[in-house]
Amino acid sequence: MSHICLALRATVIAIGIALACLQPRATAEQLPSEHPNVAEIVRLINQERAKAGLPGFNVNDRLAAAATFHINWMRQHRCYEHRCLDEPDLDTRVLETGYDTGSAGENLDIELRTPQAVVADWLASPIHYANIFERGFEDVGCAYLEGAGGPWWTCVFGREIGMVSE
User: Fold this and answer.
1) Is the omega angle on the peptide bond into residue 88 within 30 degrees of 0, that is, cis?
2) Taking the complete model, does pTM exceed 0.70, yes or no?
3) Percent composition of the chain: helix, strand, coil (DSSP 3-state, to 5)
4) Is the CA virtual torsion 136, 138, 139, 140 positive or negative?
C-alpha cells in the first residue's frame, strides 16, 4: 500500500474516532417523550401481560431515556436497527442512564401510525413477543418520535440488578 493510501487511511480513522467521541450518549437527564402514544403503548403492553397473568411493567424514566436516545439516533442517522453504526449497544445505552441491568430487551417499530398497530405487530413477532412476556423484565421505558421516515417507536425492557419483586 502506498504512503499516500496509508496516510489517507490513518486520517479517515482519526476522523471517525473524533466523530464517535462527539456522538451523544444516553443520560438520565434526557426526558422521555411525553407524547400520549407513549402512555398508550405502555397501557396496551401491560394489558396483554395481565391477560397472561403477569404483572404490568413499571414505567422507568431511565429506560425511557435510553429509548429516547436510540430513537433520536436512528432518525438522525437514518438507521432502523437495534444498533446503528458508531452507536453504543443496548446494554451500554441503558447503563449510561444509571439503570444497572443484568439484561435488557428492546422493541422497535417504524411507520405504524397507532399504538394499537405497533403492539399488534410486536405480538405477531416471536422476538418482540418474548420481550413483552419476559418474566425477568419488570420495567419499561418507551419513546415515540414523529417526523421523516416515521413515526418511530422504541420500548426498552429491563430489571435492575439487586431489585427483588414482591
Assistant:
1) no
2) yes
3) 45, 15, 35
4) positive
